[in-house]
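To make this tangible, this section ends with a sequence with its structure tokens:
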Amino acid sequence: MKFLTDRYIRSLFLIGLGIYFIVEHEIRERPQSTEDLIDLHGTITDYSFKDNTGWRGNGRQYYIYLDGYPTKFQVKADYLRFFNKQQFEYNFKRDSRVKLSIPRYQESLVGTDENVFLTSISVNGFEFLSKDETISREITMATSNSDYILGGVSIAIGILIFLFYDKIKKSY
């Protein structure tokens, strides 16, 4: 098959990647205000804060488990800098009542085995993760042009590889 050459595969991959970045930025759901969040109240049964950073690691995975919910409530990686992990661990008491907020678009995942992203965590009025900071981060990411730039550059490189593949290959 002449279509499955190195030239076509590289070009199509980069163009497809660029289109993915642009489309994904447009369709990604993000909470833009506190109206886009819902509050949940529950009792903390456990938590798990894994720092698997480094080579071949999965990054940081922070989960909170509530009584009566099979759902894993996750602190999103984008919010870790706002999360007061040390204070949470220091003040953690099993069976503490907690107030969580989650994005409204993930409400249907509550009660399932799926992960749900947290936008705030508070116990007895003390905030460990502030919804004001997480909403601000989401608004910043929504107005960022980085996905468009990355997508456009990827498409441009894919087109250039397609057009000038023979010249590029000869130079090696």
